[in-house]
Amino acid sequence: MLKREEHKGLTLRSLLLGLALITLNCYWIIAAENRVIWEITDFSTFPTTLTTLLIVTILNVLFAKLLNLKRPPLDVGELVVVYVMVSIASGLAGHDMVRQLIPMMGNAFWYARPENEWADLFHRYLPTWLTVSDKEVLRGYYEGGGWSTFWDEKVIRAWLVPALAWSAFIILFLFMALCFNTIIRKQWIDHEKLSYPIIRLPQEMIANSSGFLSSRLMWLGFGIAFALELIAGIHYLYPIVPSPRLKYDIGRYFTERPWNAIGWLPIHVYPFAVGLGYLMPLDLSLSLWVFYLFWKFQLVFSAAVGWGRVGAGYQGEQRAGAWIGIALLALWTSRRGMWRVVSGVFKGSERDGLYRTAVIGFIISFALLVFFMNRAGMSWWFAASYLAIFFLFSIAITRMRAELGPPTHELHGMHPDRTMIMFIGTRRIGPQNLSVSTVFDWIAYGYRCHPMPHQLEGYKLASATGTDERRLAVAMVIAAAAGTFASILLHLWLYYKYRYVIWGVGEFYRLQSWLTYPIKFDELGVKQFAFGFLFSAFLTFMRRRFVWWPFYAVGYAVGGGWAISWMWFSIFLSWLSKRLLIGFGGLKMYRRAMPFFLGLILGQFFMGSMWALLGVILNKHMYTLFP
Q1: Res 384: pLDDT
Q2: What are the tens digits of pLDDT across the range 453-482?
Q3: What does each C-alpha distance from 303 to 224, 256, 258 come to in angstroms?
Q4: Is the separation of the CB atoms in 34 and 493 below 8 Å?
Q5: Distance (Å, rounded) from C-alpha 231 to C-alpha 468?
Q6: Out of 262, 280, 365, 483, which could bridge 284 as a Cys pair, Cβ 3.0 to 4.6 Å?
Q7: Phi and psi of 467, rounded to 5°?
Q8: Do residues 77 and 53 make contact, with C-beta atoms less than 8 angstroms apart?
């Protein structure tokens, strides 16, 4: 391993390159996901980010050879900084973050009608400095008014204060997340030695650029995935061109009760998912596809015994319990390391300035976020509870990715306010808290492209390559600010140009229902939540106590997600391939085959990203990488 001091990482050129690529990637993602394809940020690692890193890596090696340089223009640390900056900003631009925020600023007013009585029910509770209420200003956003409409002085004035206020909230939250990751980094990286499978591909591209690019196996996997994606895209544009059929639905063959409750059961082959599954520990890939079938079995079992909604309608609560269980267990197992850091800072025995900044920064940023939410209209206890629950979900994602690296992670419908309502009902929370929390619920839409895990993975990359962690921390703060501003500005700008799909309307219809028909304690929901929590604790206990136990709590928590539905069979294929390779050739054969599977990821992600880029350039719908 290279010594840390050999790579500063954050230099003027890496910073400028990172900022330029942040702008390009944010535009690429926002324009593509909202206009020409479906989704490209549903994954643990983003296709456009890896494509950008591949292009930068190739150019870096080519410049070194063409100019006869002893070293490439960008060293390893600078590549780490560029990659991490782009990853964090891409998460903000993605499907589950700022894309959900912008419409939440105006939906409550644009969709208000006399018949739904929104104006009387909750308009008075909504903070004016976080929302836009002028329908004339909103018209261009919801109907598309051309490039010039957004630049009207009245429009800019209406959006300016809410955009800046939300930018401050996002940056402050990501700073708090970075402080936590800074505190926990050595515990999870050096002491617990978590595997961080997700960064295996970027690490190979950064730390071993020449060797990675010269691997024939890698290019074989790349070529296969690239060709399949290329042919699928051409077939989408010109159906006369044949394309391999890699997607089936066998759920339609289950027509008799109770088996018809299984619903949709896709058998899809995604080369990138096969590759990502190969990077995971063998038992995790087993857990993912087994627990996907387990969630389907719950539907069949519930239909067979006549439970109905208990099995089918409460899976979100069950999975939320599992996520909270994973977060709390992660904090419990790391408690000594965290306490050592925190107590050392306050006793003055901790000499690491980065730790001191992180501990004090976490406390101050948490307090400021609660203050922000209180000024928006939440009561103090509710704001602190809301933020704490959301942060526990965020820790769960970060831990899952660091420990086992699932290809995707999502939890729809279980926002912090809904979690609290499940336990105490709506009356105790009150209309003020319910209304304001609805405006904040964009942060918990699906958790798929959450930037917090990318920060910790940046620290892991820094540790593996000897990059200065302090400079990287500065780069991550800059990336959070740049990504926030770019994402908000580009979303507004492009929505005023084109009429896109608007998200988050359902949240206000749900609020209308809560205020009109208050909810009491949800006994069934709490039972399902408790089952998910206890079952994840049981799985974790069994995994740590018995070597032979193959199932991970992460597989249970993630296996019921929408995105895993599309990938489960590909993960099964990767598990089977890895099992056979290790069984017949041992670890040596597993390592030798690794470049091929890395190529599968990169090939499909690269061509999928190119289809998205081509669609943006031509302003034309294209074949979508996923789903």
Answers
A1: 96
A2: 999 999 999 999 888 899 999 999 999 999
A3: 42, 11, 5
A4: no
A5: 43
A6: 280
A7: -90, 140
A8: no
User: What is the H or E stretch that residue 528 is in?
Assistant: helix 523-545
**pLDDT tens digit string along 357-375?**
999 999 999 999 999 999 9
CA separation for the pair 29, 42 (Å, rounded): 12
Q: What percentage of the chain has pLDDT greater than the value 90?
A: 52
b/e per residue 381-397 (b: at least 16 CB within 10 A): ebbbbbbebbbbbbbbb
Dihedral pair phi/psi, residue 206, rounded to 5°: -85, -50
Which amino acid does the sequence have at 295? Answer: W
Q: Report in angstroms the alpha-carbon separations of 527 from 55, 310, 318, 523.
A: 50, 10, 8, 6
CB atoms within 10 A of CB 68: 6
3-state secondary structure of 549: coil
CB 475 within 8 A of CB 455: no
Cis amide linkage into residue 627, ω under 30° from 0: yes
Residue 619 identity: N
Output phi, psi for 267, to 5 deg.
-115, 90
Look at 112-116, 134-138, 149-153, 536-540 and tell me which has the smallest mean pLDDT. 149-153
Q: Give the start-to-end residue ranges of the domains of the chain.
A: 7-238+317-539+607-618
List the structure tokens of 265: 């059961």
The rounded distance, in Å, linking the Cα atoms of 137 and 148 is 13
User: Hey, what are 93's tokens?
Assistant: 């631009």
Which residue, chain included where needed, has tokens 């209180």?
A: 374
3-state SS of 588-614? HHHHHHHHHHHHHHHHHHHHHHHHHHH
Number of H helices, E strands in the chain: 26, 2
> What is the residue type of 306?
G
Residue with tokens 């027509």: 255
Q: What is the DSSP string of 319-369?
A: HHHHHHHHHHHHHHHTHHHHHHHHHHHHHT----HHHHHHHHHHHHHHHHH
